[in-house]
Structure formats: structure tokens, C-alpha cells
């Protein structure tokens, strides 16, 4: 995969910027910003993006049936987990879009698509940045874990190398291998979870599996339920 990086000092959100230019640039264009003033999580949630972190959005134009596109979030999460492993940081994927280290969030993925035209894979990784006070218990950075600053460009290159690999599997339809890797690196399987949608507990039970569609399979006591990724969040309970 050939990457082309657009470097910005400041932007509201690299995902928003990427969506604006996506139709006019080739696949593999990456929007990278030193800081975001309005970084986005899912469903209008915020993403704290001060200087020192890696805030990037990758423009992709996969030719694949539309139902596969949501699985891109796993491609992003796996790339981050692999890059962190190169620094000796053991990370896990909290289905569907968080990357955790020892239960604390180090990265979040935000995948957005325009039907059939393009997908934007947003990756936010806490590298050398400060963690806002209100997230101190729930979030962590690479610097916080390692005790020293890490070269941002090196982290970027390591993510891109891993992304090339996982995206090549995605493009050649090897979704099962991607999902197997997600299962192996999963923080949720075997755990008791609550699935939250719009602040409401949708269901509760033991996370049994992530199936080949990428859905989370939960044993609820009233039978097995499948939860498609989308806008749900998981809480451990
Ligand atoms: C996510 O949303 O985890 C997706 C985050 C994606 C961020 C990237 S940065 C580059 C690109 N451009 C963007 O504008 N976004 C993408 P969600 O699962 O909804 O989690 C959001 C929640 O994570 C917030 O409500 C906070 O609780 C928490 N949070 C916010 N900033 C954080 C940070 N820097 N580190 C860890 N947790 C954070």
C-alpha cells in the first residue's frame, strides 16, 4: 500500500477533514494533525487530542460488499495493537473500537463511510500527550506506560506497516483471519459485560464470541444474543 501523508498543524477533526477531501484524493491518503480542536468519538462524544498524540485518518476505497465495511474498525484496532507490541506494550481490543492496556484506553478507532464511495478510518492514539484530568483513571498514554517520550513518526510508520498487512487481508476477503486475530487479542471474551446503547443497558451477560460478521455473541441467561457493532458500548461488570 502506498501512503500519502497530509500533515496539518491544527484541525477540528482529521476525520471531518478527510471526508471533505476523500473524493478528490487517491486511496491511502492520510490526514495527520498535531492537534485537533474538536476530535470526535462515536455518537458525538469527544476525543481529547492535545499535542503529542497521534491523530490520523486514513482514506480507503475498498472494493468490497458494503456489509464488510464495518469490519474496517478491526483493521485499525489490530494495526494499533501490533504497533504497540513493537514497544513491548501488550494491548487488547475492547470490542468494537477501543484499544486497552491493563484496562485503560490508549487508543480509539472511528470508522466512517460514504456508501460505496470511500471509508475514513480514524485512529487516535495517546503517545506523548497529557491525559485530561477527567480521564486519568480510564485512559493512558505510551509515555505514561514507558516512562519516556516516543518518536511520533516512528509510531506512525509502525502503524502503517501493520495497517498495510491487515488491509491487504481485508481487500482479499480474508475476513476470517482478521476476526481470528481480533478474538485472540480480545479484552472482552469470557468477561461479564453490559451492552449500552444511548445510555441504556441493552443487555447483560457473558461475552462468548465475536462471530464471523464481527458481532459480539453474549450469553444473557435468556438465551444467546448477537450484538452488531454500531453504536453500542461495552462496560465490564
Ligand atoms: C472512540 O470513540 O474511541 C473513537 C475515537 C477516535 C479518535 C480519532 S483521532 C483521529 C480521528 N479524528 C477524529 O475526530 N476522531 C478520530 P468512543 O468509543 O465514542 O469513545 C469516546 C470516549 O473516550 C469519550 O467519551 C471519553 O470518555 C474517552 N476519551 C476521550 N478522549 C480520550 C483520549 N484521548 N484517550 C482515551 N480516552 C478518551
Secondary structure layout plus pairing:
Layout: E1 4-11, H1 14-21, E2 29-36, E3 54-60, H2 72-85, E4 92-94, E5 98-101, E6 104-114, E7 118-125, H3 142-146, H4 152-171, H5 175-184, E8 192-197, E9 200-210, E10 216-219, E11 224-227, E12 233-236
Parallel strand pairs: 1-2
Antiparallel strand pairs: 2-3, 3-7, 4-5, 5-6, 6-7, 8-9, 8-12, 9-10, 10-11
Helix pairs in contact: 2-4, 2-5
SSE order, one letter for each helix or strand: EHEEHEEEEHHHEEEEE
Q: Supply the CATH architecture of the largest domain.
A: 2-Layer Sandwich
Q: What integer value in Å does the Rg equal?
A: 17 Å
CATH superfamily of the largest domain: Bira Bifunctional Protein, Domain 2
Ligand identities: biotinyl-5-AMP
Q: Please indicate the percent range of residues in DSSP E strands (runs of 2 or more).
A: 25-35%
Sheet with the most strands, sense and barrel status: 7 strands, mixed
Average pLDDT score: 96
| Number of E-state strands | 12
Q: How are the strands of the biggest sheet laid out side by side? A: 1-2-3-7-6-5-4
What is the name of the CATH class of the largest domain?
Alpha Beta
Measured as a percent range, the helix fraction is 10-25%
Distance between the termini: 41 Å
SS content category: alpha+beta
Coarse morphology = globular
Task: List key phrases describing it.
binds biotinyl-5-AMP, 237 residues, alpha+beta, BirA Bifunctional Protein, domain 2, seven-stranded mixed beta sheet, SH3 type barrels, single chain
